[in-house]
Amino acid sequence: MTRKKRLFLLHTMPFVLNEISAPLEKQFLAAHPDVEIQTMLDTSLLADTMAAGKVTPVTANRLLGYVQAAERAGADLLLLTCTSMGEGMTHVREFSSLPTLCITEPMMKQALDLGTRVGIIGTVPTSPAQIIAPLMAEAGRRGLTADDLTIVVEVVEAAFQARGRGDTPEHDRLVSAALAEMAAEHEIDSILFAQASMTNTVFEDPGVPVLTLGASAFEAAGEMLAG
After folding, report:
1. Distances (CA, A) of 148 to 112, 143, 145, 199
2. Distances (CA, A) of 165 to 83, 161, 170, 222
3. Is the pLDDT of residue 65 over 90?
4. pLDDT of 1 strictly over 80
5. 216 partner at 20 to 30 Å CA-CA among 7, 72, 197, 222?
6. CB 28: neighbour CB atoms within 10 A?
């Protein structure tokens, strides 16, 4: 019997695992019956990163530990679903041969296909920087420099707090208001949600394409596993 390929998902928020990832996993497995999914969850990775305001060397080493554990368990690819942990993958990739994918990376291509004026909205202070880094990397691959890009950032911490206490309507209202304000005040080609936890946000159309994390990452994972 042919062994199925193994996709490992590393989450830092139960909400993302249950509300965002689970439906996408179902669609993914239907399209890729030769793949099985294994899941890892550690909420302290995000908590410690938020407390420090960045991914510390200690946290990056812990992230590496998860990747190494996945590799020992027979993983063919690991998908990190937490944007705030993205910079830690630079460290991981120096010390692990396991193919890895950050949830942010596929969305960068979509954004720059729409134009070089990009808005970013997050609800966690550490998330936007983890969007900007892969955005700049993708821009570099296209021969663009920082001077060629216009990046506008807004963090709506009150929305994260609302999500934490289970008030999804308030979370969505605050994010929707931020979208409308950004689109009205800045000439931008797209607005990116900086976290997977924002994927299911219900919002009014701001008149600018809004890109969310999730589906594009699973699509990219399928392509990597098939390659």
Report:
1. 11, 10, 5, 28
2. 21, 7, 10, 34
3. yes
4. no
5. 72
6. 20
Report all structural domains of the chain as residue ranges with CATH numbers, in order of start: 5-103+215-226 (3.40.50.1860), 105-211 (3.40.50.1860)
What is the 8-class DSSP label of residue 102?
E
Question: β-strands 100-102, 77-80: how paired?
Answer: parallel
The answer, yes or no, to whether residue 126 has pLDDT greater than 90, is: no
How does pLDDT run across 92-105, given as a tens digit for each residue?
999 999 999 999 88
Q: Within the chain, how many helices (H) and strands (E) appear? A: 10, 8
Please name the residues in contact with 57: beta carbons below 8 A apart, sequence gap of 6 or more. 91
Q: Which ranges of the chain would DSSP assign to H, the alpha helix?
A: 14-15, 22-31, 43-52, 57-72, 88-95, 105-114, 127-141, 157-164, 168-185, 215-226
Tokens of 222: 């399928």
At residue 169 the predicted structure's pLDDT band, cuts being 50, 70 and 90, is: very high
Q: What is the dihedral of CA 206, 211, 212, 216, to 10 degrees?
A: 160
- Longest CA pairwise span in the chain (Å): 58
Separation of alpha carbons 151 and 108, rounded Å: 13
Whole-number Å distance between alpha carbons of 202 and 214 = 15
Distance CA 208, CA 224 (A): 30
